[in-house]
Amino acid sequence: MTYDHTPVTVADKRAVVVGGTSGIGQAIAYGFASEGADVVATSRSQEKVDETAETLRDLGADTVNVTCDVTDPDSLERVRDRTVEELGGVDIVVASQGAISRASVQDISDADWDFVTDVALDGVRRVTQCFAPAMEEGSIVNISSLAASLSMANLPAYSAAKGGVEAFTRAAAKELSPDVRVNAIAPGFVITPQNADTYAEGTEKRERIDERTPLGRVAEREEIVGAAVYLASDAASYVTGEVVTVDGGFATSAF
User: Fold this and answer.
1) Where in the sequence numbering do the catalytic residues fall?
2) Distances (CA, A) of 255 to 24, 93, 200
3) Which of 32, 37, 25, 26 is nearest to 62 (CA)?
4) Which Gene3D superfamilies match (predicted)?
5) What is the CATH code for 14-192+220-248?
């Protein structure tokens, strides 16, 4: 007896990961490549784009060495056009660009607020507006955060931007259906090269997080990849407008 089902894989798909040269975005780019996808990992840094592209090729993916700035629609269009030209199309887009400013609600400046929301929220809008018209039966995956739904001190702009990302994800899912599915991932506390010192074992912050998290630890960035592969794959063909939380149970634990 056999049972037909759609496998969870991105093999043979063509993906663009904006913000894909560091942190969670880079892990997703590498994960897609290891699954058999061709992947363009892009950011503002040509050096990081080139380094990430080398690893993607080592993993067997075709790629394009191209930078972008999510505050500049022309640069996003350049990424889209080169991907379509060199890879033949775009099936998956991940918006993983990030910006953060640590200040209280009372103290955050207009400049810092505008910078964070321009990159983290308006950037998601620009990515969607740029790539969705070029996709056929495609999948967009936005990277949100627990900060969208939990109160975190000194992160008002970041929290507001991520809350907006989740609301925008639902709005875009409705408007772009049935051709393009739009979902989001809300990671919990994830160790990346950028925050390794902050979440290092033995620090007070790490101890507080581990104590509250039912799984008892923070995540490695590779642990976010599975959710991204699922949402980008044809196995999620009936999933749109959803936010998948990957936090070790942190949000469910009151104490």
Assistant:
1) 158
2) 27, 36, 22
3) 37
4) NAD(P)-binding Rossmann-like Domain (3.40.50.720)
5) 3.40.50.720
> How many whole angstroms separate alpha carbon 74 and alpha carbon 71?
9
pLDDT of residue 39: 98
List, run by run, the mean pLDDT of 10-residue segments along the chain (255 residues).
Answer: 89 98 98 98 98 98 98 98 98 95 93 97 98 96 95 91 98 98 97 86 90 95 98 98 97 78
Residue 218 gets which letter from DSSP? P
* The token pair that represents 59 in the structure block: 């993993």
CB 196 within 8 Å of CB 154 = no
Q: Give the per-residue pLDDT at 77.
A: 98
Do residues 137 and 89 touch, judged by C-beta distance below 8 A? no
Q: Which residues contact 155 (CB under 8 A, 6 or more apart)?
A: 100, 102, 147
What is the spatial distance between Cα 250 and Cα 147, in angstroms, rounded to a whole number? 12
- According to the model, what pLDDT value does residue 254 have? 63
Q: How far is the C-alpha of 69 from the C-alpha of 196, rounded, in Å?
A: 25
- Using only C-alpha atoms, the chain has a radius of gyration, in whole angstroms, of 18
SS3 label, residue 14 = strand
What order do you get walking across the sheet with 135-143 strand by strand?
38-42, 14-18, 90-95, 135-143, 180-187, 243-246
Q: Is the pTM of the predicted complex or chain greater than 0.90?
A: yes
